Amino acid sequence: MTGVRTGPALSTPRRVDATVLMKHTTDSAPLGSATTEAARLRQNGRGAASWKYWGPYLSERQWGTVREDYSRNGNAWEYLPHDHARSRAYRWGEDGIAGFSDVNQHLCLAVALWNEHDPILKERLFGLTNSEGNHGEDVKELYYYLDATPSHSYLKMLYKYPQTAFPYRKLLEENQRRGIRAPEFELLDTGVFDSNRYFDVFVEYAQAAPGDILLRVTAHNRGPDTAPLHLLPTCWFRNTWSWKVDAERPRLTRGSDSRVDLHHGALGEYHLYCDGEPTLLFCENESNAPRLWDAPPTVAHPKDGINNFIVNGNEGAVNPASQGTKAAATYRNEVPAGGSIEIHLRLSREHLDHPFGDFDSVFAARRREADDFYADLQRDVVSDDARLVQRQAFAGMIWSKQYYYLDVPQWLRGDATQPPPPQSRRHGRNSEWAHVNNADILSVPDKWEYPWYACWDLAFHCLPLALLDPVFAKEQLVLLTREWYMHPNGQMPAYEWALGDVNPPVHAWATWRVYQIDRKHNNGQGDLVFLESVFHKLMLNFTWWVNRKDVGGRNVFQGGFLGLDNIGVFDRSAQLATGGHIDQSDGTSWMAMYSLNLMRIALELAQHNHVYEDIATKFFEHFPHIAEAMSDLGGDGVELWDDEDKFFYDVLRLPSGAQVKMKVRSMVGLIPLFAVETLEPELLDRLPEFKRRLQWFLRYRPDLAALVSHWNIEGRGRRRLLSLLRGHRIKGVLKRMLDETEFLSDYGVRALSRLHAAEPYQLEVSGMKFTVRYQPAESDTVLFGGNSNWRGPIWFPVNYLLIESLQKFHHYYGDEYRIECPTGSGRFLSIGEVAEELTRRLTRLFLRGPDSRRPVFGASERLQSDPHFRDHLLFYEYFHGDSGRGVGASHQTGWTGLIAKLLMPRRP
C-alpha cells in the first residue's frame, strides 16, 4: 500500500546518551551557586545518574514536521495532519501535553484529558496549519510554562481545558473565512471560556533522585457547575521497532496494585505506580492502517486504541491482556464547582512498597529548593512583578528543550520495512545535507510552532540559558558546529524546512557572550577549551561566507533573507524578478560584526597561546576592508550609506549594470551598529605582536583606517573603538532610530520606520511595481508563509543587539557624548542611558504598568484582569510596533527569553 508508514524510529541514533555533559568544559556555577539546585548542576552525573537524563524533552507537535514528511510534493503539513496524529505512529519523535522523557526518548510520559464532550481525547495541542490560518500556522490552545529548575528536579506547567466541546471546526472555518488583513480568531474568541466553564490543569514533575520521577496533576473547576473530567496520564515507548527487520520490541505490562511494569532493552526495568484505583488501558504505539489508509490492520490494538475505548466505547480497541507499548491510567472524576482533584504517579527503577509515602514531602522539598535557587539568582531584581516575569521566562527556556532526531541519509533512503520514499526526495529538500545525523537535546524556538532547532534563534537562547546552566548553554553552541550538524563546506544548518537557508552569523557573538557570562560567575575562570573548540569551527564557517556569499569578491555580502523574512522589497532568498542581485547592508554589516567577534575571541585565546595573535590580525584586517566596500561598492562610487538621509540602504544591482539604492528605512539600516568592539589598553599591551600589526596597518593603509570609527584614537580609559560608524554617522543613525515618528516605539525599536505608514516605499523596475508599507502587527504578505512580519513590529533579538552595541559605544565615549532621546524631545542622554531607556521600553511589554495592565496582553480584558490569567505570561515571537501586543508564535520563549537577561541588573 503506497504511502503507508507505521510510526517512529529505526536506525540507532548516533549518540546513546545525549545529555552527557561536554567533558572538555570546566564546571560552571550559575548565579544561584550557593543553593542545593546549583550543587546538582555541579555534580556532573553521567548517564542515568544525571538529573538531566530525564526532562521535558517531548515536542508539542511532531505532526506536520519535515522530518515526518515522506510525500511526493514536500507538503509536510498535509502529509501527516493533526487528524492523523492520534492514529499514526511517528518515525522520528513524539509529542504530548506536558511531556517528559529520557534523553533518547525511549520512554515518554504525558497527560491526556477528556471532558465527555470532545470528539477525541486531548492528547496533543491543536493548531492550524500554514494554509489554514489567516496568518499561517498557529497553535489554538491556552497553556503556560510556570516554573522549572535547570536540573529538572522540579517543573510546572498549566493547561486550560474547556468543559464544553473543543471548537476544532469553528477555529478552522472562521480563520479560513478571515482574510490576511483581519485579526486571528483565537480560542478565547470562540466563547468556550464563557462563565469560566473550564479546568485549570496544573502538571508538576519532581525528581526524588535522578530517574525517580513524581508526577502530580491538579485540576481546578473554574466554572459554576460540577463537571466531569477524565485525566489519563500516559506512558509509551517511542516506536523504534517498525522500521527495521527483527528489531527488539519493548513491553508494558500490568503489575499488581495499579502498577505498570516497563521493560526496554536500553533503559532496563521501570515501574509506573498509579495512586488510587485507576483503570489501566493498554495498546500499541503503532499505526491504525484501516483508518489511515483503508488497508488491512498490522496490529490488533493500534495507537488510537485508548482514544477509541474512552471516547467511542469500543471495548475491543484496548488489549484485554493488559500489555502493549502504550498505556494510560484513567481517572474519571466529577469535579465540583470551584473545587479541584489531584492525582499522583511515580516512575521508578525500584520496587517500592510505599511509593507515595514521601510524595508530598519530596514535592515540598523540590519546590523549596527551586524557590531558594531563584531567590539567589534574582537577588538584585527589584520588584516582585519583574521576578515573576523573569522566572516564567526562565521556565519557558527550560520547557523548550526538545529531543530532536533526524538521520538525513536514512530519511532520504527510507526504511527497510516501509514503502520506499519517492525518488524526487533524493534531489529535493535537504538532499545536500546527507551528513546530518542529529539525535540530541536542543533548545528550540517554540515546541509547537517551531519544533526544531533554528541556528540563529539558538544563539540568542544561550544567553539566558547561561545564567541558569552554563554547561548546557555551551553544549548547545558546540553542537551546531559539530560535524553531524555543520556542512563539510563550513555552512551551518538553518532549520529543517531548508537546512541550506542562510541565517545571520551570530554564533561567534553568542559564543563570546556565553564565555563572558560563564567566566563572570565562575570566579573569573574562563572555559578556554570551549572557546577554542567553537572558534576553530567558526573559522570554517567564516570562510564559507567569504567564498559563497560575496559575489565578485568585493567584501559586499548578500546572504538572502537573513532571518528578516519579509523586511525587503523582494524575497531576498529567491531569484529576483528583476534579475541581478542585492548588495545587502545587513549581510555586509553582519560580516563586519562577525570579523570583530572572531577577532575578539582570537585575542582572548592569544593571551594563552600567542599563535592566535596572527589569527586576530587576520580578522582585524578583514574589518576595514568591509568598511571600505560599504563606502564604495566595486569602486564605482555607490555606497550603502546615504549621506543625505544619514542611513544605510540595500543596493539593487540590475543585469544592465544599473544600481538602485532601495530607500526602505528598516532594521537593515540599523544593523551596522552591531559591528562595534572596544579594545582595552591592557589587552593590547599583553599582545605586542597584534599591537605592532595595528600600528603598521595604520601607517600603511591610512585610507582604510579613516573609514573605521576611532580605531586609532584613544577614548575613555585609553580604550580603542572599532566601528563601522564614524562620529557623524552614528549621530545620524541614532537620530532616526530614536525618533518616535520613525523607529522608536514605547516598547522598543520597530523593524520598519513608521514613516512608511504614510509614505510607503515604492519601486518600479522593468514594468513591475513593488511596495513596502508599515505594518505594526500581523503580516499582509504571504512571503515566507505569512506567519512572520518584519515590516513594523518589535523583535527581541535585534533590539537586544542594539542595546549591547550601545553599551559598547558608551564604554568608549563615556558620559560626555550625549544624544537627544527621544529625537526632538530636548532631553539629552549618554549612549549608556539610551541603552537603559531601550531596556526599560522592552521590559515594559511584560511588566504591569501604573494601570496594572501588561501591554503584551493587548486589549483582552480577560488576560488583563482575570486572576486566573493575568499573571501567566506568554512570550511571543514579536510585538505590535505601536501597542506592544504579542504577535506570532505565542510560546517563543526562545529568543524572547532574552527578557530574562534584560531584567537582570548589570553588575560591574
Characterization of the model:
The strands form 11 sheets. The chain has a 9-stranded antiparallel sheet. Strands 1-2-3-10-16-14 form a 6-stranded antiparallel sheet, covered by helices on one side. With 908 residues, it is α+β, with helices and mostly antiparallel strands. It contains 25 helices and 34 strands. Mean pLDDT is 91; it is low at 1-25.
Q: Which oligomeric form is depicted?
A: single chain
Share of helical residues? 25-40%
Terminal CA distance reads 66 Å
Q: Strands of the largest sheet, in order across it?
A: 6-7-8-9-17-13-12-11-15
The stretches of 5 or more residues where confidence is low (pLDDT under 50) are 1-25
- Give me the Rg, rounded: 28 Å
Overall body shape? globular
How confident overall, as mean pLDDT? 91
**Portion in strands:** 15-25%
Structural class call reads: alpha+beta
Beta-strand segment tally: 34
Tell me about the largest β-sheet.
9 strands, antiparallel
Count up the helices.
25
